[in-house]
Amino acid sequence: MAERADWAELRARRMAEPGAAAAYEAARRAFELGKAVREMREQRGWTQDQLASAADMTQPAIARFEAGGTVPTLPVLERLAQALEAELVVRLSPRSAA
User: Fold this and answer.
1) Which CATH number belongs to the domain containing residue 16 in this structure?
2) Residue 17 within any structural domain of the chain
3) Would you write out the chain's pLDDT as a tens digit for each of its 98 residues?
4) Most exposed: 2, 5, 29, 35, by fewest CB within 10 Å?
5) What was the pLDDT predicted at 3?
6) DSSP structural state of residue 17
């Protein structure tokens, strides 16, 4: 149990550092976008190579994207959406009061 307390303490210290919360949130969004693209690709029965070809990208770029290793630009998201015959929806919503 001491390991969990140590991990929780380390995480709390890291998250208290300037910019840590924003970086964590950006990484979470990148992971979620990658997961959504991977799921759509797999539903089509496509390989990463096939998606890369349809989106005019490289297979390693698709692999990095699906793993959440990159924060995509809007043009990249548009190419992926078009290749997957999906609608890209980008919106800003007010945060709910906590």
Assistant:
1) 1.10.260.40
2) yes
3) 456 668 788 778 877 888 888 888 888 999 999 999 999 999 999 999 999 999 999 999 999 999 999 888 999 999 999 999 999 999 999 988 76
4) 2
5) 60
6) S
Kindly list the distances between the CA atom of residue 48 and the CA atoms of 2, 35, 45, 56, 60, in Å, as whole numbers in the listed order. 42, 13, 10, 12, 8
Give the three-class secondary structure for 24: helix
Answer yes or no: is 91 within a domain: no
- pLDDT on residue 98: 60
The span from the CA of 36 to the CA of 38, in Å, is: 5
* E-only strand ranges, the chain: none
Q: Is residue 97 part of a domain?
A: no
Domain tally, the chain: 1
* Residue 44 to residue 5: CA distance in whole angstroms: 43
57 in a domain, yes or no? yes
Q: Which helix (H) or strand (E) element contains residue 4? A: helix 2-15
* Whole-angstrom distance, CA of residue 97 vs CA of residue 47: 42
